[in-house]
Structures are given as C-alpha cells and as structure tokens.
Specification:
heterodimer, A: 435 residues, alpha/beta, TIM Barrel, 2 domains, 8-stranded parallel beta barrel, two-stranded antiparallel sheet, 14 strands, B: 426 residues, 8-stranded parallel β-barrel, globular
Chain lengths: 435, 426
C-alpha cells in the first residue's frame, strides 16, 4: 500500500512571540529565557512534527525610512537571539523532535559552525540540522567588519566551498577512531582521525575537527533557495528545503524542478524533502475561521507598515518613500531576489494601492482557512497533487495557535493517515527520510 | 568567607577509572555536568567554568596519537552549547564558558553571550582566552597564531568591541506599549560604529540588553601581559601558582595592577586552582594519593598541547631544559619554576599538578587547610579542578563543601540569582 504520509515542520526563530494580541498573555519578554520555545517544542512533538526550523539574521534593519523605528516597533528583524543555544533546552524537554538552526556561510567561520552542530548532534541525540543561508543584508556584513556582502551568485559559489569544508570536518574524525579501550587506556585511535588540509578559493582549514563524529550519518542540511542559483545549491546539498510557491501548480513545478536537478546531480530525488510554507487559520466553525482570516489581512496602516518594513529589510529597498495609496512601484535587489519577484507578481495589473498590496503580502503557499478537518483535507489534496513532501507551518506565535495546530490540526491529519502517528526512529535524518 | 568554583572541560572526564560509570560513552550528552552543577549549586558554589580549545594536538611526538589516546585535548565539545542545558537545571549558580579573542568574530561572540545571559537569567559569563595553539589558528585559516603579546593587544580591542556591542541596547529599550503598538523603542538602540586596528563592527547587536548588565568576564593569564589584561577587564581570575607564598605574591601583584588600572581591587575575585585528594579519614586520603600515578605520557602530552613544545624529545631522567613558548607562556614559566626543586623531568611531571597546594586528607582536614591558606593569602577563593567522576564530586560537595560552610568559611545561601551579585557580595 503506498505511503501517502507527508511531513510537518514549523518555521520560526528565537524572537518574541505575539505580544499584543487577545491571547498573548501578559509577559511579552519571557521568551528570552527559551521557556516558551521549550513548551512549543513539546506541543510539536505531540503533533508528530519532524522539526522546528529556526531562521536567523544578523542585523537590526534600517532599510525602511533610514531608521530602525519600524523594524523595532514590530520586532521584524530584531530583537532576535542566537538560535543555537535554544536547541539544548528544547532537546532536554523532548525525545524525537528535530531542531534546525540557521547559520550564515558568509559570516561564520566554518570550523566554528561544524563544531557547534557536531556538539549539538550529541546533546540532542542525533536531532540537529543546519539551515544554510548566505545572508542577504549589507548591515549584517557590516557587523562583521565588511563594507557589504558579495553579489548574490558569488555568495553561493562561496557557500558551495563552505559546505565542502564543513562536511570534510564532520568526516575528519571517523567513528572507527572511537575505541574506548580500558586496558590500553586508549580513548581514540589517531589512525582514523585526519586533517582535511583544505586550502581552497575562499576558505582554509587544516582540521581535523576536535569533536566526536556526529551520531547522524550527517547532520541534516536545510536550505531555502528560490533563485536558479539557490535551486542549484539545494539540489546539490539539501536534505530538506523550505519553499514558498503560490498555488499547487507552482508548488508542483518547483518540486519537480528540484527533483530534476537532483537527479542530474546524481542524487535520489526522494532524499530531499521539500516543505511548503503555509499559515493555516483555524476555527471551530468555517465562519469563525473565515472571519479570523479577514481580520488578519485587514489593510490597516500598521499591517502595511510592518509588511513594508519587512520587505524593505529583505530587499534593502526603502519602501517608505512610496505613497501607500499609489500602485506598487518597480524595484530590484541584491538580497532576496525571489521574494521580491513574488511580491511584485502578486499584482500583475499594477493597480492595487500599495497599502492593500502590502497588507495582503504573504509567503503562504496556499490559503488554508477552516476547521481542522477542512484544512487537513485541503492539505491532503494539495500533497496528492504536488507529490510531496510536507508543510512548514508559520503563523502568529502564541500558545493558543500552537495548540490549535498540535491538538486540532494534527489529530485531524492523523485520522486521515497522512502524518505519522509515532516516530519510527531516534535521529532526525532517519525520521525525515522514513517517507 | 571565601568563594568556591569548579574548573572543568566539556570532554571525556576520567573515563577508564574505577568509578567512571558509562561516562566514556555518555559524556557527550552533557548530563555528567548537569549532575555536577546541580550538586555544586546545592553546595552554594559561585560558578563553574569550562575551559576550551579548538584543535587536536600533535605537539607530543609529532603525531595526534598521544592526545587522542588519553583524550587530553580532543575530543572536546563546544561548552557554549552546554551552558543552556545546565541553566535549565539550576537557578543560582554561575556558568562561565570560554571564547577565543583570536579566532571568533566579535559580533558573533557578543550575540551568543547576550543570548546565554537571557537564557540563564544573568548567570552566564565569558572566559576570555587568546588561544595558545598554532593548530587552532590553522583550523580557522591562519598560518599560525599571532605573537603572544600581539594577541593581547588584539584581545584588548576585541573585548572593547564585545563590551560596546553588549551595551548597544539600553536596558529600557523594550517598551511593549500596547497603545502605540511599539515593541522596542528604536531611540534606545545604537550602532557602535567601531573602527579599530584589528576589528570593525557597525553594530548594534540584534539582542535585547543582557538582563543583569554586562556578563561576568573571567580570565586566566599569568604572564605579565596577561596579568595587565586581567587587571583591566576581569571580574574573576583563575590562578595556578604553586605554594602559599607564590599565591600571596600573585594576589598582591594583581591587586596592585587593579589599582593602577583605576579599579577597586575587591572588584576582581582571584580564584586559586585546587585539586585536593579526599578520603573518609586522613589515612584513606593519603593511601589514595599514593596509589594515584600520573601517566607520564599523558601529563607531558597536556603540557605539549598548550605550549606546542614536543616534550617527548626530552630525557626524562635529566632536568627540564630551558624552553619558551608562544602558547601558554605563564604556565610554562610556572612549570619550569616548580621544576627547579626536582632532579629529573620524570620526577617533576609525576608530581606536577595545576593545583596550587597539595592538600590531602579528610574533609575536615582539607577544609581547615583551605581556610588557613585563605587567611594567609588574603582571599578570594578556590577553583576545584580534576572532578572526573561523580564519586569525587560527592566527596567535594557532601564532604569538603559541607565542612567549609558549616565552619563559616563559605556561604550558606546565595544573595542573588545573578552571578555578578553573588560574586561581588563579599
């Protein structure tokens, strides 16, 4: 009988949960000690999720209006804390959920990243992954002492070599080296530990890594690249991809393209799970859900400002200079090229006022509004049409929503037999590749 | 009263001993240190500090054989990733981890420090090292380490950048105003625009201001340059100085340097490394000490790793010849100084320990000796090292520490849940 199960993950970061909504609680700062994320991890494990993906960035944006007012007002890019230290906290409270954290190939020394991930692989008992980004903001580069970032495609060229160094380091301390012989008092055998002597175009590292070999055959590699160069990189390296494609036709086209590229690169297409970003809006009745959805995209000035602040940071264009009542302008970027293209393409006819256009901007792959069972049905149909491999939930972070998903949507999906009802394996990689 | 801490590493503890349990396999899951910090918190210790290094050493004999055989410097895992797990299981003890000023990007380190400060509610700290091995530098793409004194010059700039970044968000920047829908007030968040000789960083960090002010800075540098650096920046210093007179002299020298740097000498707590041998009775302890023999190769291998001198070439039955290093300069100097009292290198290394004093006895005996030592030296506390098994841990927490606090030598309660406040409370 064919396995029609698909995967679930959550797209989030180490920053504030929703702090000013009707169900935001009364402590908008408690997130900093990680306790909210720990609770959320437990809920997601209850729901059978594969992993939590912690995106990240390394700057406070002043792209909108030339100040950080909007970025900090809405907490768009800051405050945002280092996601790696969050992982051991969440791992301590769970047994099977995986954790993927973001780190930039343009900013962080490869040895440091390799060691962090290897350390976490052991602390989580094989449940860690690395989301590979090249960074997209000059302000981030300036925090690290550079004037600006390299051009888009060049960043990927560097990233290719970076991944080579990191994988080399993870493989430099072989499992056979770990002897632990009490009689000869030998912990490890140097015959199986080897420098990598990497001296490349962009990176140099002698190695070996000073950590035990990871428990997973290799920590999971995650990536999100919509541009052609990004897709090429993904086809070569990624075990799981985050994707945002509008509608099932585009979702299918994207996935098929990735699978074709993977085959061309000599990889089994099933060995990379493509996860589509969705923001389910759930209600006890269809009407309740629809009203919630309408309210969420109501074109208020704040919502528009917040969306444009976000877009300004992503594309390093100052959207504040445009009139909210006028149609969308033409712009280009060295940053997130596909995001900008998607934003602009939302309004082909170029007549919608910027305010409404911004308020409706979303990275949702398809609208999912309804009761848990209705949404579960939409997800099942979409997966049947697209072919796989799962969904990356991204929504307003508050406890109520998290439980709507974990205790509402997930059981509905489980009753349809389309998500796991138990974890078959101990390690993230194995659970991810199980179907 | 004096302070107590523990000095440890995120690497295999004593893994092949009588009391090792399964730590040879399980050490990398971190729970050995979870048990450790819970016990130390029960005993009201100030902090635990994780040293760190980023290489597999091949200094001894020109191969990695010795280092890996005895698990001296590798495998070793990143202690900054262990701190959160330890924070989850404790509420008052300090957690200090090492970060290199030579290898890391300052913005990256500052962000991790701020993150840990929030996760631990103000109990985390940074042990500042300049790194002492060319092999570590080569892992980060440098041909070799900068010269010893240059490293300190670079470190000063690095610490300045990190400190400014940690202060870039004012403590009250987080406003959470529901009326105006403002989470953070941007007028209280400032780029630092740092342009130095070695580092540039625009800033600010993208993290909220650390909850208890600047995290505690720790340091351990005994060379003259290292001592100056410590006097300028450290809130607590680790010292390996052998013998009471050396300890007293060291502390007096540090306090003088603190004053010269314009600081209150009491604002830096000087902690002397100690590895006592304990037994239910003095006799049991002495017999235990006599049984313990240091594997000569292991001991020399450790020294080789941090000085990058190949100790395997020296004649074990002759005195130690003169040697210098670009690595741990002060440590080597102290090793040589203590070596003068031994006729051969073999004898020297078999007696060598990083412990400042050779204390062997029952908990009551050792506690008494520690209190006397503190009286003589003047302060400020001890950092226990070599806790390689849970059994030894309990000898310390249930025996030695209990004696010390009952006798009024150490605290019976924390005054605060932040490291800085507990450290500075006496």
């Amino acid at each position: 009988m064919p396995d029609n199960r698909f995967h679930l993950a959550w797209f989030m970061n180490f920053s504030s949960f929703e702090w000013n909504g009707p169900f935001s609680g009364n402590d908008g700062a408690v997130w900093t000690d990680g306790s909210l994320h720990v609770e959320m991890a437990q809920a997601l494990e209850r729901g059978g999720f594969d992993y939590m993906m912690l995106e990240d960035s390394s700057m406070v944006s002043d792209a909108y209006e030339g100040t950080s007012r909007v970025d900090l007002k809405y907490g768009l890019y800051a405050p945002k804390h280092d996601p790696f230290p969050l992982i051991p906290l969440m791992a301590d409270a769970t047994r099977r959920l995986g954790f993927v954290a973001t780190s930039s190939t343009s900013l962080v020394p490869p040895y440091l990243l390799a060691r962090r991930v290897s350390t976490l692989d052991h602390l989580t008992h094989g449940r860690v992954g690395w989301n590979i980004v090249t960074s997209s903001e000059d302000r981030a580069a300036q925090n690290y002492g550079m004037a600006k970032l390299w051009e888009h495609d060049h960043r990927y060229e560097r990233a290719d070599e970076y991944v080579e160094v990191v994988e080399g380091l993870w493989g430099s301390f072989r499992p056979e080296a770990v002897v632990r012989n009490r009689d000869s008092h030998t912990y490890a055998d140097a015959r199986y530990v080897t420098p990598i002597d990497h001296d490349g175009k962009f990176f140099k590292s002698r190695g070996p890594l000073n950590t035990l070999p990871p428990l997973q055959s290799k920590p999971v590699l995650c990536q999100a690249g919509g541009s052609p160069r990004g897709r090429q990189f993904a086809a070569q390296h990624a075990d799981t991809l985050l994707a945002s494609a509008f509608g099932t036709a585009k979702m299918k086209a994207y996935r098929d393209d990735i699978r074709t590229r993977m085959a061309a690169a000599g990889r089994d297409p099933d060995s990379c799970k493509v996860m589509f970003i969705v923001i389910p809006i759930l209600g006890e009745t269809m009407r309740e859900a629809q009203e919630k959805a309408e309210l969420a995209s109501l074109a208020t000035d704040d919502l528009a400002e917040s969306a444009l602040g976000h877009l300004s940071a992503l594309t390093e264009n100052d959207f504040s200079i445009y009139n909210l009542d006028e149609p969308v302008p033409t712009v280009t970027t060295n940053g997130h090229t596909s995001t900008l293209a998607d934003f602009l393409s939302l309004d082909e006819g170029n007549t919608t006022p910027l305010r409404e256009h911004a308020a409706s901007w979303t990275i949702d792959s398809l609208p999912l509004v309804g009761t848990p069972d209705h949404v579960a049905g939409l997800m099942q149909e979409a997966m049947e049409e697209v072919g796989g491999d799962g969904f990356l939930i991204s929504g307003k972070m508050n406890r109520r929503y998290i439980h709507e998903i974990a205790d509402g949507l997930c059981p509905a999906l489980r009753r349809r037999g389309v998500i796991r009802d138990h974890y078959e394996h101990e390690y993230l990689r194995d659970n991810l590749m199980a179907f | 009263m004096f302070h107590m801490g523990v000095f440890t590493s995120f690497k295999p503890p004593e893994w092949a001993g009588t009391w090792s349990g399964d730590t040879d396999v399980t050490w990398s899951n971190g729970y050995f240190w979870v048990d450790m910090v819970k016990a130390l918190e029960r005993a009201k210790f100030d902090y635990v500090i994780f040293e760190d290094s980023s290489m597999v050493s091949d200094a001894y004999g020109g191969t990695m054989d010795n280092d890996l055989k005895y698990a001296l410097y590798a495998p070793k895992h990143d202690p900054m990733m262990l701190v959160p797990l330890l924070a989850r299981h404790t509420s008052s003890i300090g957690l200090i981890a090492t970060g290199s000023t030579t290898l890391l990007p300052p913005w990256h380190l500052a962000r991790t420090l701020a993150t840990l400060a929030h996760i631990s509610h103000g109990r985390s700290g940074w042990n500042i090292v300049t790194t002492s091995e060319d092999r570590a530098a080569q892992n980060y793409g440098l041909p070799k380490l900068p010269e010893h004194d240059d490293r300190y010059t670079m470190a000063e700039e690095f610490v300045q950048v990190v400190t400014e970044l940690l202060g870039a968000w004012e403590p009250d920047a987080l406003v959470m105003d529901r009326e105006t829908n403002v989470y953070v007030d941007h007028t209280k968040v400032h780029p630092i625009n740092f342009e130095g000789t070695y580092h540039r960083s625009r800033g600010p960090l993208n993290t909220l201001a650390p909850p208890a002010g600047r995290p505690v800075y720790c340091q351990a540098g005994s060379s003259p340059r290292g001592r100056d650096f410590a006097a300028r920046y450290a809130d607590t210093i680790l010292v390996s100085a052998h013998g009471l007179d050396e300890m007293k002299t060291y502390r007096a020298d540090l306090r003088r340097r603190l004053e010269e740097a314009g600081r209150d000498p009491d604002s830096c707590k000087i902690m002397f490394v100690l590895a006592p041998t304990l037994g239910a009775t003095g006799q049991e302890a002495r017999e235990k000490k006599a049984r313990a023999h240091r594997q000569v190769e292991a001991a020399l291998g450790s020294l080789a790793a941090i000085t990058e001198i190949d100790f395997s070439v020296f004649d074990l039955d002759a005195p130690l010849p003169p040697a210098t290093t670009n690595g741990h300069a002060g440590y080597l100097k102290e090793f040589a100084r203590v070596g003068e009292q031994h006729a051969t290198l073999r004898e020297h290394i078999q007696n060598w320990s990083i412990s400042c004093l050779d204390l062997v006895g029952s908990p009551a005996e050792v506690a008494g000796q520690m209190a006397e030592a503190m009286d003589y030296v003047g302060g400020d506390g001890f950092l226990l090292a070599g806790i390689g098994s849970r059994r030894y841990l309990t000898e310390i927490t249930e025996g030695l520490a209990a004696e010390l606090s009952t006798g009024g030598a150490t605290r019976t309660e924390y005054v605060s849940t932040t490291l800085r406040e507990n450290l500075m409370s006496f």
